[in-house]
Amino acid sequence: MTSITIKLSRAATKASDDSIIIYAVKSDDNGAQLLGSSASNQTLETLNLKALGVTGAVESSHRIPVAGQTAGLIGVGNGISSTANAREIGGAIGRAFNDHKNVILDMPIASAEELAALLEGICIVQYDYNKYKSNSKKPSLKSIEVITNLNLSKSRLNRVKILTEVLNQTRDLVNAPANDLYPSKLADIIKTQGKIPNVKVEVWDEKKLEKEKCSGILAVGQGSVRAPRMIKISYTPEKSKAHLALVGKGITFDTGGISLKPSTGILGMKYDMAGAATVAQATFAIAKLGLPVAVTAFMCVAENMPSGSAARPNDVITFRNGKSVEITNTDAEGRLVLADGLILASEMKPDLIVDVATLTGAARVALGNRYTGLMGDDASVETVKNAAAEAGELVWHMPLPTELFELIKSDIADLMNSRVGNPSGGMLVGGLFLQEFIGHDKSKKRLPWAHLDFATAANNDLAPYGYTVKGATGAMVRTLVSIADHLATKKK
Q1: Which of 352, 254, 246, 335 is nearest to 299 (CA)?
Q2: Which residues contact 389 (CB under 8 A, 6 or more apart)?
Q3: pTM for the predicted model, two decimal places
Q4: Distances (CA, A) of 60 to 10, 29, 81, 215
């Protein structure tokens, strides 16, 4: 995305040929109503909105020639009522009118927070993954002018820019095909992107992984000719108020291994590294924003392939914390690589551990296409819920039922990674498995931890909506940044 210039003005500017001026249309009992500081001018008043088919329904859009310029009408339903709502409407504006170089917004916005969210929505939909297209059209939008009496600080506008930048980097990584993005290549990209003040990137190759007893990543990656990697990103601000540990699943392609996926299930498995991309870019955003929260991110990266050297069902591996796991399903590999990252994160005794993964197909069955499953201890779940609400992202608290733990008990090891043939609570069983690799504090209490299963929300294979584009969505990046915001203010 080309950098977009944002300008706040007190009075309306006459639109040029490559500009469009946007008005909001509210829908109420009296029908569609045009809103905006200059929406009462005589020309606009003559518009018959009903005859034009303008209803004011949320995200509906229309273009109308008015007095020698083009006016864009965006439906806002009952009006902009929250930052989340403002962000969604911003996304609708950004998608509907980005064929113009300049967008002028003349619509009522109640607060600086809602204005920032609206701008964020417009900016983050200016994305198209067209690297492999011989003939592609890029968004034309270069500037946004807002007619308002509100003020936004330079830091708040910079936040919009940074969040847009890291979301695009996340989506570029997740959209990349596996033949161009394999473990070592991903590590090289992260090293380049990680050249940020107070950020350090370490890459552990297979020899280092063996030395550190990262058995899960090694087992999953041993079937591929492309060796696995652990990528550790550390952000250490000069003054830190808390320590946040992030762990991301990074399977650059998932065939299912020996437990091979069916042909219909294997399509899209390049997206299985979305968790790792998410924690990396969230860390970079936190660093660029200069938040006073130390972050350690573990990207658990491997390619899950079937071969003569691949891990077999019924193999047993032992992790660095001493726990043994019988691999009953090589297609339940995400929890194996995450276990390594969670153990390493636990050893650092952070204030909060959050893992992010496209972990289970059961997440789609339970929650549909837009929600991310959230599990963990009550306090950590509450922190993540609040952060997600602030970011305008959808999470749903799911339980960790103790009775389901029986499904991952092995006859020959401490645990098995899957109860093959028993579909009960698949998403929840995945969470229960991961919980076993969260360490304890001095009082033997399990460390604060939350698990985000965004197997569906990470990729949108349907039509764009709100500020969500088609393909890789960049979901949960902004929630993780918001978590850091909360920790910065919570810790004294």
Answers
A1: 246
A2: 84
A3: 0.96
A4: 27, 18, 17, 52
The pair of three-digit structure tokens given for residue 310, joined into one six-digit string: 């691949």
DSSP 106-118: -S----HHHHHHH
Tokens, residue 65: 């020639």
Distance CA 227, CA 208 (A): 12
Question: What whole-number distance in Å separates Cα of residue 384 and Cα of residue 371?
Answer: 14
Distance of alpha carbon 76 from alpha carbon 59, whole angstroms:
6
Sort strands 143-147 and 5-9 into parallel, antiparallel or unpaired: parallel
**Of 140, 87, 119, 111, nearest to 7 (Cα)?**
119
Q: Could you list the active site residues?
A: 261, 335
Q: Which burial class, exposed, middle or buried, applies to 164 when counting CB atoms under 10 A from its CB (0-12, 13-18, 19+)? A: buried
- State the pLDDT at residue 492: 46
Give percent of the chain above pLDDT 70: 97
Is residue 231 within 8 Å of 201, Cβ to Cβ?
A: yes
Helix segments in 147-228, DSSP class H: 154-175, 183-193, 206-211, 215-221
